[in-house]
Amino acid sequence: MSNGANSWEGDEYSQNFVDQIAVMVAKENTFYSCVDYLGKLSESRRASDAIDVDWRQNTAEWMFKVIDFYDLDRDIVNVGLAYLDQMLTLSSLHLRWGKQQCSLVAIASLKLAIKLLETRTMNMDDMLKLGLKMGSSFAPIAVVEMENEMLYKLSWNMFPPTAFCIAHHMICMFPKEVTKSPRYIVQELAKYMTELAVCVYDFIKFKASSKSFACCLVAMDSLDDDCLISPEARAIFLERIIRAFGLRQDDSEIRILKKELKDLLCHNTNLKEFVSLIRASNESDNESGSPKSADIETYTTNY
User: Residue 146: is its pLDDT beyond 90?
Assistant: First the structure.
C-alpha cells in the first residue's frame, strides 16, 4: 500500500497492523472468493443424494461440534469451510459425487485446518470416528489422498482471511476513546454472528470484509444505552473503514448483510440476554468464559 493509501492509520497503528489489513484485502480480492457452486446443480439433473444447502449447514454444525469437543479455536471452522467452499468452487466434484463422497472433502477440510492452525494433532482414528457422525465411513488413506488433492487444487493457498479475523482488526480501529467494555461486547457479538453466518450457504457469495463490517455495525447497534459508542467515535471508525477497506455503511451489499444478520440473531438467540452474558463474562475478567462456548445447538437450529 502506498503512503497515501495508509493515511487512515494515524498515530495509533503500527506498520505491521496496516500491512496485515492490506494482505487480507488483497487475498479476498484474488484467490479467496467463491461462487454459487450449488446453483450449478440443475434441478432437472439433481440426484437424490446430491449435496444442498441443508447438507452444507449440517456439515458446518458437525465441524463446530468436533471443535467444541476438543476445545479448539472456533475460527478453525471458518477456515475449514473456506477450504470446502473453495474446493467445490474450483472443482466439479459435487456435480459427480453424492453427499457421502462429498463428506470426504469436508473431513479433509477440517483436518487440514486443524493441522495448520492448531499445535495439537488430531488422531486419524478419532477423525474417522467423528466422520461416522456424518453418516460416512472412509479409510485413512482416502482422507490423506483427499488432503493432497485439496492442497494441489487450492495451490497451497491455505490461510484465508476469515470474517472474524477481519472483524477483530476492524474493532482495533475504534478510536482510543472507545472503552474496553463496548469493544469487548462488539467483538463477542461480531464473533458470534460470523459463526452463525458461516453455517448459512447464502453468505458465501459475500466477501469476508463485507460480512465483518456488517457484523460490527449490527453489534454496535445492539449496545445498551449505558455502553454506546459516541457519534463522534463512530464517525471516526466509519471513516477509517472507508479508507482501509473501501466499505461504507450505506452500501447496498452492507444493508443486505445487516438485515440478514439481524434475522439470524432474532431466530437464534435472545439478544438482550446474550449481551448481558457477554458483559458478565467481561466483568469477571474470565477470558475463557466467552459466550462462544455455549452449546452450538442452542444457537444454530433455526436458520
Answer: yes
